[in-house]
Amino acid sequence: MASGPDLSIELLGQRLQNPVIEAAGTFGEEYSELIDFRKLGALVPKTISLEPHCGSPPPRLVETPAGLLNFVGGDNPGVKKFIEEHLPRWRRYGIPIIVGLRGHRGPDEYVRIASCFKRGMGVMALELNFKFMSDCSSISDTVSRCTQATDLPIIAKLRPAGVIMTEMALAAESGGAAAISLVNTIPAMVIDVERQVPELPLGAGLSGPAIRPIALKMVWDVYEAVKVPVIGMGGVADWRSALEYILAGASAVAVGTAMFSNPYAAIETIDGIRDYMVRHGVMRVTDLVGLAHRNLRAQSALKGGA
Amino acid sequence: MRGVFATILQNRAVAEDILKMVLRGKDGAGLAGARPGQFLMVRCSDTSDPLLRRPMSLYDVSGDTFSIVYRVVGAGTRLMAKMPEGGEVHVIAPLGNGFNLPPQSGRVALVGRGVGAAPLVFLAKTAIAQGKRVFGFISATSRESLVGVEDLSKMGVELQTGVDTDGSSTELLDLIRERHSAEPFDYVATCGSRRMLRLVQDLRTATGVPGEVLLETRMACGIGVCKGCVVMTADGTYKKVCTDGPVFPVELIAG
Fold first, then answer.
1. Which residue among B49, B224, B229 places its CB closest to the CB of A66?
2. Residues sharing a CB contact under 8 Å with residue B253, sequence separation 6 or more, in sequence order
3. CB contact under 8 A, B48 and A208
4. Fold for domain B2-95?
5. Does the predicted model carry a pTM greater than 0.90?
6. Where are the domains of chain B?
7. At the topology level of CATH, where does B107-214 sit?
8. Which residues in chain B are contacts of A65 at CB distance < 8 A?
9. What is the pLDDT of residues A172-200, one digit of tens each?
10. Is A2 a domain residue?
């Protein structure tokens, strides 16, 4: 293999040098002192809202078994400051940027933020963070209105919350989403048994390896249901977990919570995928996307079950 | 800041459930330039559980070694207590801001409780090296858990200690007030007790003496990204303990 395995992908019309993205809310310029950003597939800054938000009162975090429960509460500088001050700094790395946005006050806010972005600003796509929106018609409607508010492709980022994930994904796709990313944090809870109350507000969400098998199954199901690319995340911590998602159908994966304890997680994941491809004689990482589905079907066919 | 693999030179109990760990960076660089008040994020597990690193204030930095003093309170610190001497641990360091000893200050008071006294030991060493007169007021729930008192004495800190099980430290706090009345301190640093913080705030309000508090809180990333470690400050904004702190002027923090 003279030139080595090809980890590059084409996502939403943009070439990424590899399928590893770092996840919204878990990444910041501070990591540039520890790792080389120019090795990443894409960058996702902290999700922004229309106005600045100071976030929730502390405590905002609780560690759980192999997980992290958080209610940071949307602490962000707001779209104006982001575009004026933060975006230029992110662009310096020369790596594709996906901007995550969330309308705290509802669908109109998503549309207003989306209308602030267009091609030529150095952003490859907008990711609508549907953290507190889970009804299908709102999702579909919001995606549709956002596609009209900007010429950038729209990614719908979904959160498991009551409604079946595939239904939300189909709704987002029918609204015009160019890709689906999942999962956002899973609604969860820790109770302080001495004070006899929940430790964090009821909207808190769980991330980290604890949610991986749950999120992975959701990615599997959504890949079967939609035609647009799927971006998988939820406890991606290393090359093995990244490949689980890719084999399940993710065109790209995001590393998030893992970075807190291992800032090198995304870089190690990229290197690990490359080594895996060499070991398995895989030329292009795109050949692995959804491969587990095809293998499973082949297995059933052999058993005469097809 | 950087990520450092460090060799564990020592990891020994100094009191019940309190250990001192001495480390040397494998790359030989140590933590030169680290300031009192700064901290490390220690990776205590190779697995995903416990998931997060643990923040630890620097107890001392000396040549190419650095040390922390920690109490075993949960899963992460239990694992740290089992790390063998000669073994390896990964830390991200040095993090946070540090104490700001005013250059003109001649009389410095350090007021701490339990493991909260640990970062004050590093501060004491720096203050003594700057030729300041340093007074230490350290309390704990038992004689044995008076952290750092031997090291403080050895370096020439004029020390008063107090033992109480309910956190009141009443006699010690009264003593600090008396001493400050008799001959004022120029700067006070505190860590480890809300009551001590309130005293230092009172002294500042009454006499204008500048004071700083080192806060400890839950952290995930430790470097300013996750925004999980914020504290509400008196100006109505949230500040990150990991990057805006962990040291804050006492008047910024609710007592």
1. B49
2. B197, B213, B215, B231, B233, B234
3. yes
4. Elongation Factor Tu (Ef-tu); domain 3 (2.40.30)
5. yes
6. 2-95, 107-214
7. Rossmann fold (3.40.50)
8. 49
9. 999 999 999 999 999 999 999 999 999 99
10. no
